[in-house]
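User: Batch of two.

Assistant: Item 1 of 2:
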Amino acid sequence: FQVQMMQLMALSPIRWACGYLHQVHFMRSATVGAELNNDIIGRIASHQTRPLGIPMDWIQSSGWSCDKPDKIQDRWGGKNGPGNSFVCGTDQLFYLGIYFRFLCIIAILGTSKMKSTGGGAIIKG
């Protein structure tokens, strides 16, 4: 059931964007723009961020970073530690956007064909 839910989550552009923003705001150094990467916030909010897939105490103790290659499915599923919702890049988000645009083009072409032929079948066979 967990694998199916991860596949369903992978279809959500909001999930990818939030995972990337979480990674940016929690993982980068404080001088680069990680406003939430400090010990005080880590101690105060760790019990609230861990269920959201942001295990800051584990990340800081294990030294995890986006430089270590691992599969997103393993990271989200918690294969090598607690579930980690971070997304290290935006490539998948762009691919998902291209895929959804392709589906929209197919739907628009099918709808326009049906309307132009008087409501007939999309594919004649």
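Item 2 of 2:
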Amino acid sequence: IKEVTTMMAMGKVTDAAFVRFKPLMLRGGGDPDAIEPWVREFGVLKDGCKVEGLVSERELPGILLLRFSKEVDFDGYYFITELSDPDLDPISFRIEADGEDTTGDAWPRVGTSMPYLSMDGHVTF
């Protein structure tokens, strides 16, 4: 079993004090809200370097939330999968960011996984 590191440049700079990683689909098909953890490390990048100033990281049902001491600029993100079962690796996910710690699904989307074609022919992000 190997870890997988995923890094993605977003093509634009975003500023936010809160960033969340929301897996939509796992490699093995399980429910991301019910199975945790899916990643060992998640963070944001600016010009390919880790952004400093992280105050806390917490797991909510189906979400990994980062809180920074102030709004930070970032133009990419990374995550490292757990060293456990590869079926728990996220293959479809959203990266969302906001200036406030809000609840619900109203967060602006700033990044997504690459499109994924499911076995039944549906394209998922």
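The radius of gyration is 14 Å.
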